[in-house]
Amino acid sequence: MDAALNESAREAVDVDLAGLADIYSSSGEADLVRRIEDRLAVRPADGGAPHYLLMRTDGVRLAGDLEAWPDLDAAISERGMIAIGHRSSAHARSTRLAPNTWLLVAHEVDPASTLKAGVRTVFLVGGAILVLVVAMLGKLSADRLKRRIARINRTLSHPDELASMPELPRRARDEIDELAANSAQVILRVRNLLEAHSDTTDRLAHEIRTPLTHLDARLVKALETQPDEQVTKRLTEARSEIRRLVSMLESLLDIAWSKARLSDRSALTPVDMSALVTNLCELYADSAEDAGLALQWEVQPGVVLDGDEAQLGRLLANLLDNALKYVPAGGTIRVALSDGPVLVVADDGPGIAEADRTRIFERFQRGPDVKAGEERPGAGLGLALASAIAQRHSMILECLPSATGALFQLRRERP
């Protein structure tokens, strides 16, 4: 025990001496004198009182509570025991701060420190045992809490399995039971809202598309009567408007459907994106050639994504349709798929202004014809639907800066 206390005192002297030497080298002699006086003004609670002596080699005393320099060689930073008064001794060490300046640091070892150290050891051992017991009880409680929270997480992650979950306690025992009950109620409410939304949109689609389809059939019958050229032209334009309205309605419903299922991944299945992109590019190659465009694609094999294959195909088709609409004859459309997955659709057309790169993903936003200054035909829903499908798959569709033309990139959201 005494050996440990003596070693602790020697270490305290070394640390104290090094700190004062650093103060001298960085702030100078005046600051060192102030620091020594500050340390002498505070007596440590453990009884190991410090003592200092800062003096010149010519015997001029600068600071400290020691009156005379002991038999310690400052040139070699000698250490040793020195007498403090008539009854005490201290571990001391000297050093030379400058050619004409010496510093001595000493720390007493309190005779009562052995008893204090013993008491301290008892408390430390007892505290360690107490901490161990508390830790074991805490781990048991944490494991139980973890199991209960895992049950809530399973319910939130797989809402379709809520009906098969064990019945929740009717009366909450604590906050966790209350959280579990509230979570179950929220899931049931959201499910009911989604079912009501789905039913409403299905009814809306049916109620609007059915009369439009009937109207289109009547126009077909009217055209079969072979009216004059002017009437035929008007009827044909009316049919085009009907098809445009039906297409716009379907796009709006698809956008609403995708946004309503942002957090629902239960219906997603592995999709071979490499095969999907290759097949669509091959399908669009003829259309691009007819429009006087070159369609090039580079697809990394084996890229798989959990998703809805029909929706992902719609996303890429909308991007390709957009490129075919705006790239002038003689231009090139490039499609690239790499692991990540990262899908890029780029072209060398008129491009998109920086101020419009976010706006184009809003509904009913259409880009102007750069050459004619007129808007292209369309409802402005293609990119809005593509963005909604991307969000449905926890991905981001964005328009990035490009030296020429437009560049669209589909990638996973960063965590």
From TrEMBL:
Record key words, sorted: Kinase, Membrane, Phosphoprotein, Transferase, Transmembrane, Transmembrane helix
GO MF terms, alphabetically ordered: phosphorelay sensor kinase activity
Superkingdom as given in the UniProt entry: Bacteria
Subcellular location: Membrane
InterPro entries listed in its UniProt record: HATPase_C_sf, HATPase_dom, His_kinase_dom, HisK_dim/P_dom, HisK_dim/P_sf, Sig_transdc_His_kin-like_C, TCS_sensor_his_kinase
Transmembrane parts of this sequence: 122-142
Reactions performed catalytically: ATP + protein L-histidine = ADP + protein N-phospho-L-histidine
GO cellular component labels: plasma membrane
Coiled-coil ranges (or none): none
UniProt EC number: 2.7.13.3
Ranges where the Histidine kinase domain occurs: 203-415
PANTHER family: HISTIDINE KINASE (PTHR45436:SF8), SENSOR HISTIDINE KINASE YKOH (PTHR45436)
Name this polypeptide is given: histidine kinase
